[in-house]
Amino acid sequence: AEPVACFLWLVGGAGICMGRMLRGTGANFIQSISVSMLVAALFYVLRLTGKSLWESGVLLPVEGVWLPLVFAALVALPIAMWMEP
Question: What is the C-alpha to C-alpha distance for residues 71 and 34, in angstroms, rounded to an integer?
Fold first, then answer.
């Protein structure tokens, strides 16, 4: 699951940064970094929640590990498609 998470961060982070940075000012750079950090924090919380749910027996281990990655893919891929060439 870790290589998939790294790939999704690469795709999503590049989409967020390049989509905003191509438009101009330094404020856009700060905004894109802030949005990236917010999405990273949300993903981290989802991974911790998934891990605690499968350790307590609510979810299967496969579900606890892969559900946050599916969420990240649903966020990262549209952002990458939205990126300007």
Answer: 19
- Model confidence over 47-72: pLDDT tens digits? 889 889 989 999 898 888 888 888 87
Between CA 63 and CA 34 the distance in angstroms is: 29
25 to 16, 21, 32, 34, 66: CA distances (angstroms): 15, 7, 11, 15, 37
Q: What is this structure's pTM?
A: 0.64
- Residue 56 phi/psi, 5-degree rounding, is -85, -5
Place of tokens 């891929």: 77
